[in-house]
């Protein structure tokens, strides 16, 4: 490092020291304000993760952000019990410190110097054929019938559970055979267009087209009751999305179309985590995509 650069850094540090220090807790609040237009779930995650860190580390809330370096931030990341939790902490801390850097509350973003934890993607099996048949049969019964539209969109369109909560009947274009997930509704924040397959169209018509939200009132309780009645406990998170992806690949062999429907930026996640052909047969795949066959 040449002498001129050292002088610049010393001058910058002196300016930071002269100004009013910004605490970590204030930095979190300012980050939330700056991202007020983001999805509620995103903001809730920032509050939750940063809140846990401040409860776990005495004095962190009042610590000036310019005094938190790479080693301190690395220690915070290590508080995650799993690689996935550590990755989430790192992502959120990076966002907080990036906001601080732009506001000139710190010189650099120390989290950028921390290597992301290596995630080992695990294969998630789709529903077995017997589980699938049982779930759909029970969904048709009067006591669970209100769950039919939401179940269909998860199973034959790969809609995420959190996205489903914000989806309405008006987001289904019957003429163009497209389901639109608007930016404020999708997980990734971008608009997504999912093909309305014939089997899903028939399933929704069987239930009856309505207005308003796809999910009925007291959705979480109704959905849990249906799963329990089908003997699907414990429930495997996103198993319907995985079932959609696996049967789609088995039947159509169109990874480009599947990637668009799933809303993935690359096909790598599909290949490493979402596609499991164990127990899937070509005959079952044809039935899965045949209207009225299940």
Structure description:
- With 294 residues, the protein is mainly alpha-helical.
- It has two domains: 111 residues, Orthogonal Bundle (DNA polymerase, domain 1); 160 residues, Orthogonal Bundle (hpI Integrase, Chain A), CATH 1.10.443.10.
- The protein is built from 14 helices and three strands.
- Strands 1-2-3 form a three-stranded antiparallel beta sheet.
- Helix 4 runs antiparallel to helix 5 and helix 7 crosses helix 11.
- The longest helix has 20 residues.
- It is elongated and about 75 Å long.
- The N and C termini lie far apart (69 Å).
Mean pLDDT: 87
What does the largest sheet look like? Answer: 3 strands, antiparallel
Instruction: Using the 3D structure, state the CATH architecture of the largest domain.
Output: Orthogonal Bundle
What is the CA-CA span between the terminal residues? Answer: 69 Å
Number of structural units classed as domains: 2
Number of strands: 3
Instruction: Please indicate the percent range of residues in DSSP E strands (runs of 2 or more).
Output: under 5%
CATH class of the largest domain: Mainly Alpha
Helical content class: 40-55%
Q: Give start-end ranges of low-pLDDT stretches.
A: none
Given the C-alpha coordinates, what overall shape results?
A: elongated
Strand order of the largest sheet: 1-2-3
- The sequence of SSEs as H and E is HHHHHHHHEEEHHHHHH
Radius of gyration: 24 Å
Per DSSP, the total helix count is 14
Q: Indicate the structural class.
A: mainly alpha
Q: What name does the CATH topology of the largest domain carry? A: hpI Integrase, Chain A
CATH H-level superfamily title of the largest domain: Intergrase catalytic core
């Amino acid at each position: 490092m040449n002498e001129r650069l050292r002088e610049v850094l010393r001058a910058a540090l002196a300016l930071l020291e002269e100004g009013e220090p910004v605490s970590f807790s204030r930095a979190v609040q300012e980050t939330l304000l700056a991202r007020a237009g983001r999805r509620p779930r995103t903001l809730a995650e920032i509050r939750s993760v940063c809140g846990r860190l401040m409860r776990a580390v005495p004095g962190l809330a009042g610590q000036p952000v310019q005094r938190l370096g790479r080693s301190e931030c690395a220690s915070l990341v290590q508080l995650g019990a799993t690689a996935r939790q550590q990755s989430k902490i790192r992502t959120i801390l990076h966002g907080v410190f990036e906001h601080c850097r732009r506001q000139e509350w710190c010189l650099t973003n120390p989290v950028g110097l921390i290597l992301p934890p290596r995630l080992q993607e695990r294969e998630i099996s789709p529903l077995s054929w017997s589980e699938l048949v049982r779930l759909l049969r029970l969904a048709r019964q009067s006591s669970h019938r209100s769950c039919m539209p939401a179940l269909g969109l998860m199973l034959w369109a790969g809609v995420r559970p959190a996205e489903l909560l914000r989806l309405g009947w008006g987001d289904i274009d019957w003429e163009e055979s497209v389901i639109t997930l608007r930016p404020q509704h999708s997980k990734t924040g971008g608009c997504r267009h999912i093909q309305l397959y014939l089997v899903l169209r028939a399933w929704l018509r069987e239930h009856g087209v309505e207005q308003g939200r796809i999910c009925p009132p007291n959705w979480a309780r109704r959905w849990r009751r249906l799963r329990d009645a089908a003997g699907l406990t414990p429930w495997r998170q996103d198993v319907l999305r995985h079932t959609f992806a696996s049967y789609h690949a088995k039947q159509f062999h169109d990874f480009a179309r599947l990637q668009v429907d799933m809303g993935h930026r690359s096909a790598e996640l599909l290949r490493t985590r979402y596609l499991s052909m164990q127990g899937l047969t070509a005959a079952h795949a044809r039935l899965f995509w045949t209207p009225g066959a299940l």
